Amino acid sequence: MAQQHIEHEQGVKRELKTRHLSMIALGGSIGTGLFVASGSAISKAGPGGALIAYIGIGLMVYFLMTSLGEMATYIPVSGSFATYAGRFVDPALGFAMGWNYWFNWAITLAVDVSTTAIVMHFWLPDVPGWIFSLFFLLVIFIINILSVKSFGETEFWLSIIKVVTVIVFLIVGFLTILGIMGGHGPAIGLHNFTIGKAPFVGGIPAILSVFVVAGFSFQGTELIGITAGESATPETSIPKAIKQVFWRIILFYILAIFVIAAILPYTSKDLLGSSAGDVAISPFTLVFKRVGLAGAASIVNAVILTSVISAANSGMYASTRMLWAMSKQKIAPKVFSHVNRHGVPVAALLMTTVVGLFTFLTSIWGPQIYLFLVSASGLTGFIAWLGIAISHYRFRKAFIRQGHHLSELHYHAKLFPVGPILAMVLGILVIVGQDLHAVQNFDWQALGISYMSVPLFIILFVYYKLRHKTHLIPLDQVDLSKADQD
Question: Is-cis flag, bond preceding 417, omega within 30?
Fold first, then answer.
């Protein structure tokens, strides 16, 4: 039986290739945050402020990915950063991060399937939304229960659609800026970078608020750590994927924000409303309409639908693998460690689906419960990033303390210890800056909604620490063995 379990694990690991890993990480970070909410970032902080925020978060994410890459190539496990936190820092931190992250993605899955209904209403306004949501939840469940390969292939092709859309958008955008497309008047150039209070609007507080928007846009890139344990060749595929993701993030996000800011002035009422999720005023729709592209709204809506399905698909996969990994570490019920003959952890998948379904149903029956659950998962992605940075800092320190040499590592994180320290500082900054307005005005209700994830994380951490009397693991006792702990 034990041998069979190992074979299932190994069978899963052989199925994710480099192209899957890079597209999963990239696809996870290109979604509605770019296609819809990017406009609100420009309207809040101006073109310069939005660019600074996205560049700052882009750098933070890059350092986090290199940190995760160094650990994942040395000890590739599906539980990834929750496992690393438990082994390199404190078992209580691993427990809190694992359950926190599972909860986050299970709720996000529900948010995404609810969003599919909103997107489908663009074409079929008279069909009840719950029908679309349940249909897409079933489709995503089937994709994930078949095999890890079916998940990888689905993500690959959904990501291709998003990438092609962004490339076409950038080409059209730059031709419009140069005056080659989009009318017969003079070239727009960088005029919109200098109108009104541009390029920086609202000063540092505005840039900080956009840091949060940018951070949510980039969430999902850490999925590369979750997939590490199921990669055929983690030593080579993970470094390649991380390198590709960095350049693609710079290319797609920074250039896309630049194009939107150059073509649409930050004073545009359409940009201000883009945070509401209306595809008709997506910055991408507005730019395509400007050059006379027929059916721009329908095309962008279709792409947004693929983004939402991709995000839900990734959420299902990430939360399932996290629950499975926690079960193996004995910090979740044993039943979740079972895998079928295709290497899929069925019990963990069913549990995640049930939580996602329950959360979705509360959006119909009890909107207040739904909003509570969504708020409770709000900052968990940033908490996970913070945990990755802390874990890597401790990993490298323990590695050297125990007499190892850097030459033993398959992949070296860039600029250690500057990288993880910078990621920690920016992570704390984003978490604290989640709702500065509520902090300044002592709005306790808004504070409770915005920062709910933090006390939930602390409760999980303290509960495990008190129950099991754990402590910060001394550097010379950190477990650096490559075998995954059962």
Answer: yes
